[in-house]
Structures are given as structure tokens and as C-alpha cells.
Amino acid sequence: MGWTRHPAPTRLLAMLNRRHLLMGLSAVAAPLPCWAAEPVKIAFVDTGNTGRGLMAEVLARAEAARRSLPVALISRGLNPDPFDERAEANAKILLMNRGIDVAGHRARHLEPGDIVHADLILTMTTDHVAGVRALAPYAATKTFTLASYAIGADEQIPDAWGKPMAAYEAVIAQLDRLIPLALTKATAGRT
Q1: Where is the signal peptide (predicted)?
Q2: In a domain, 191, yes or no
Q3: 11, 37, 132, 136: which has the fewest C-beta neighbours closer than 10 Å?
């Protein structure tokens, strides 16, 4: 999944005016609603982009939709396995239980452009923070662990890969607790 954006306000106004004029209506002169503002671009980063980061992205996407938050969300991995790029089976099961289908997901590597365009990079562990900062030292001011950003705590989200379902349930419980707080903080003043 790439960045999902709302149309730029001037482009949106032009589209509305063109549509109204074609329909014989007068041009739109009203100010644009607040949802037309640029979204906060957040990248969730883990190791392989098949478990924690993916779950963070889709849970954040669901939370943002529920609350109508102006965000654009992606997930990436620092070291995805090109031979094992599908979502982890236990992650798929837990997400499917919530009505979220990630069967089409393919792991994506964190690219320099992702770092440049992100307003905020939220990782699962301090090792991931170090990995992002090694790739792009200029990103140090916008790269945090999810827990340190959301609650100011030195809390890691452990890798559940290859572990029983209970490990995935623990990860999703952490994400359920931290993501709403992180989204609230990231969008403060924009909603």
C-alpha cells in the first residue's frame, strides 16, 4: 500500500467547480472543509513488514477511519524476506477476526522516499529506530518507537514471528492500547 492522500484543496475546488458548471450550477465558493487539509503521513516500521508493522498500519487505518482523522498510513520493513512476503498466518487470523483482510499484503522494504515523505516514523523497537536513523540520520527528529511516542515509555513490541498465537494476541493488545494515543497526538490541532 502506498500513501493515500486527499486531493490538494485547490485541486478539489477545481474539480467541484468543473462538476458544478457541467451540471449547470454555480461555481463553489464556500471554504473547503477541514478534511481537505494535508494528512499527517505516518510510516510504521518493523523488521519484515509481515507482522507487527502491518498490524499497526491496518489497525491505525481502522481507528483513523472510525474517528475521521486526517492521516496517510503505510508500513514497511527494514529487512523483509523476499521469499516470505505475505502476512504472517497468525496475524492474518487475528485481523480477519476483526473483519480486516490482509491476504493481498506483500511486504515492502523501507525506501529513502518513504523516509523523506513521512511526517512521523513509528517503529516497534529501539533497534528499528536505530535502523531508520542509520539509513537517514536527518530522520532522527521524526522517528520514535510507537510506545515512546504514544506514552513516553521505553516499551518494545516484541516480534511474534514463529511463536504461538498468544504472542500475536499480546502484540495486538499492545497495538490496540498505543495506536489510538499515537494518532491523537499526531493529529492534534488538525481535526
Answers
A1: 1-36
A2: no
A3: 11
Q: What is the pLDDT of residues 119-169, one digit of tens each?
A: 999 999 999 999 999 999 999 999 999 999 999 999 999 999 999 999 999
User: Does some domain include residue 1?
Assistant: no
One domain, residues 87 and 17: no
* 107 assigned to some structural domain: yes
CB-based contact 52:171 (threshold 8 Å): yes
Tell me whether residue 66 is in a domain: yes
The whole-model pTM stands at: 0.82
Q: Which domain holds residue 13?
A: 7-36
**Average model confidence (pLDDT) across the chain:** 88
Best CA proximity match to 178, nearest among 42, 17, 21: 42
Spatial CB neighbours of 112, under 8 Å, sequence gap ≥ 6: 135, 136
